[in-house]
Specification:
Strand order of the largest sheet: 6-7-8-3-9-10
Structural class: alpha/beta
Strand content: 15-25%
Order of helices and strands: EEEHEEHEHHHEHEHEEHHH
Number of strands: 10
Shape: globular
Number of helices: 10
Helix content: 40-55%
Distance between the termini: 42 Å
Length: 262
């Protein structure tokens, strides 16, 4: 479990995060949402150690990442998988070589074992048959799936995803969401997703943190989003006519249920 307590982050005189308190739950898809500039990316960078909080705690199963030695932080990072917004694949390496890269760096297994493990992960993201292709030869959605395979190849305990659906069409985004949700539950991973994709919020948001101007504004689940009266949350999630209609239908069904009970 990851928990942040009284987390503050400032750059010079500009405060970006103010007193963030939140618990990211094990074996669930934890989403950080907010408008551009709200501080959600800064929060994720503090979670993985790319930034150091001005004050506060970042606890991994009770261990404060901020107070760890450099060696302890390095060891903890080996328990983390990362999926970057741009997929961040190595253009000069094949799909298989990209997935094997973390194993080549950190595993003492034989080449045959490393290759077998990489192929298992490619199978998990439905990319068997693409292992000999280069990133430039596959679609953006396939590149994201390669990035997922690479992120889980070392069996991480924590999986961090920065805008995994960025630049993808709705159908491909749904595939990525389903993969991330499936992997989270199949392997018991604590998954944290920084996203602006409201389809992800409604589809896989099991534990949601909504940040507004650097402050915790709302927390809940995708089901609780529908019934929320938080105007700022509603303005973000239900900006499109489609989601407005979804909320209207859900509320109508709830009201009908209440009338029937009465």
């Amino acid at each position: 479990m990851i928990e942040v307590k009284s987390l503050y982050k400032s750059f010079d005189d500009k405060e970006v995060l103010h007193d963030i308190n939140f618990r990211f739950e094990d074996s669930k898809t934890n989403l950080i949402i907010g408008q551009s500039g709200s501080g959600k990316t800064v929060l994720m960078k503090n979670l993985v150690g790319l930034l150091t909080p001005t004050s506060g705690e970042v606890l991994y199963d009770g261990r404060d990442f901020v107070k760890m030695t450099k060696r302890e932080q390095v060891m903890l990072r080996r328990e983390m998988g990362m999926i970057f917004q741009s997929a961040a694949l190595f253009d000069s390496l094949t799909v298989l070589e990209n997935v094997m890269f973390p194993l080549d760096m950190f595993s003492s297994k034989t080449y045959r074992q490393r290759r077998a493990r990489a192929m298992e992960c490619l199978d998990r993201v439905n990319l068997l048959g693409a292992e000999d292709k280069y990133p430039a030869e596959i679609s953006g959605g396939m590149q994201k799936r390669v990035a997922i395979a690479r992120a889980i190849v070392l069996n991480p305990q924590y999986l961090f995803c920065d805008e995994p659906n960025s630049g993808l069409d709705p159908k491909t985004s749904l595939v990525i969401d389903e993969l991330l949700s499936g992997i989270t539950h199949d392997f018991g991973i604590t998954t944290i997703i920084n996203t602006h994709d409201m389809n992800s919020v409604m589809g896989i948001g099991e534990n949601i943190l909504f940040i507004y101007k650097g402050r915790k504004e709302w927390t809940g689940t995708s089901h609780e989003v529908i019934a929320s009266n938080n105007k700022r949350l509603n303005d973000l999630v239900f900006a499109s006519d489609l989601f407005k209609k979804v909320k209207e239908v859900e509320l109508e069904q709830e009201q009908e249920g209440v009338h029937k009970e009465v």
